Amino acid sequence: METATKLIFIAAGGAFGAVARYLINISPLKDLPGGFPYPTFAINIIGSFLIGFCFIALTDRFEVGDNLRFAIMVGFLGAFTTFSTFELEIWGLFRDGRHLAVFAYIFLSLLLGFLGLILGMSIAKKL
Q1: Residue 122 to residue 127: CA distance in whole angstroms
Q2: Cβ density class 65-85: b for 16+ within 10 Å, e for less
Q3: DSSP secondary-structure letter at 87?
Q4: Which of the four pLDDT bands, split at 50, 70 and 90, describes residue 117?
Q5: Phi-psi map region of 58: left, alpha, beta (phi>0 left; psi -120 to 50 alpha)
């Protein structure tokens, strides 16, 4: 039952995160000049701040249950932006002194992620 409850909390948090992401994507940020993806940029920066804040606040500063922590960090922030998790993982590697892994993870994630996007689009166009 504990796993099912945790999944329900994650799903609920994810629903709120997805809605928050959508609301920012349709906000006036999308209409700013320059063709820059301001909404996604804002989501990534806000999500990175929030996961850093929540990582400390919900583990070191405040005593909260696992279900609430998972609802916020995995559910809400996971649906809001995976960039925040990416940033937290980079911090973990950096904290552990794995500096080469930090740069490899950043570089390979961006490069291979972009190549994956292009490949996926290319394959889908051939269907």
Answers
A1: 9
A2: eebebbbbbbbbbbbbbebbb
A3: H
A4: confident
A5: alpha
Q: Can you read off the two tokens belonging to residue 50?
A: 């929030």
Residue type, 112: L
97 torsion bin: left (phi>0), alpha (psi -120 to 50), beta (else) = left
Record the tokens describing residue 117, joined without a space. Answer: 């996007």
Among candidate residues 73, 107, 77, 75, the one with its CA nearest the CA of residue 90: 107
Has this prediction a pTM greater than 0.85? no
| Tokens at 61, concatenated | 């500063």
Q: Packing angle between helix 38-56 and helix 2-25, nearest 10 degrees?
A: 140
Residue 35 zone, left/alpha/beta (φ > 0; ψ -120 to 50; rest) = left
Q: Which segments of the chain are extended strands (E)?
A: none
Residues 34-89 have pLDDT tens digits of 888 899 889 989 998 999 999 999 988 889 999 999 999 999 999 998 788 889 89
